């Protein structure tokens, strides 16, 4: 068994930031489809524009937010891992 005693803060932050950007893109696409449908039914093209804006803004916002959250999470995890002695992992 290997024992995990420390996590790279920047490594975790980059991973979480990339995952956040991917999630933001998915949510942005869903938002664009939904708002385009609403805009078409109501006759307001404004909603379709908001959907396209979501495709641009959500990946950036989610990516930055998750990057910061990942760094904080890794820092707290390192403190707790130091207190409890680590986590046992079986690696192949």
Tell me what you see in this structure:
With 92 residues, the protein is mainly α. It has one domain. It is 79% helix and 7% strand. It contains two helices and two strands, in the order βααβ. The chain has helices at 9-42, 46-84; strands at 2-4, 87-89. The chain has a two-stranded antiparallel ribbon. The mean pLDDT is 91.
Question: In total, how many domains does the architecture comprise?
Answer: 1
The averaged pLDDT comes out at 91
**Tally of helical segments:** 2
**β-sheet strand percentage:** 5-15%
Main β sheet profile: 2 strands, antiparallel
Low-confidence stretches: none
CA-atom Rg in angstroms: 19 Å
What is the element string, with H for helices and E for strands? EHHE
Please identify the structural class as seen in this structure. mainly alpha
| Principal-axes shape call | elongated
Blueprint (SSEs and pairs):
Blueprint: E1 2-4, H1 9-42, H2 46-84, E2 87-89
Antiparallel strand pairs: 1-2
Overview in brief:
The protein is 79% helix and 7% strand. The chain is mainly alpha-helical. It has one domain (2-89).
Key attributes of the depicted protein:
7% strand, mainly alpha, 92 residues, elongated
């Amino acid at each position: 068994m290997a024992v995990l005693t420390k996590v790279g803060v920047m490594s975790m932050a980059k991973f979480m930031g990339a995952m956040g950007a991917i999630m933001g893109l998915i949510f942005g696409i869903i938002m664009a489809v939904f708002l385009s449908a609403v805009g078409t039914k109501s006759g307001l093209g404004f909603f379709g524009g908001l959907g396209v804006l979501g495709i641009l803004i959500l990946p950036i916002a989610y990516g930055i937010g998750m990057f910061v959250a990942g760094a904080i999470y890794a820092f707290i995890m390192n403190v707790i891992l130091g207190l409890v002695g680590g986590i046992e992992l079986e690696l192949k």
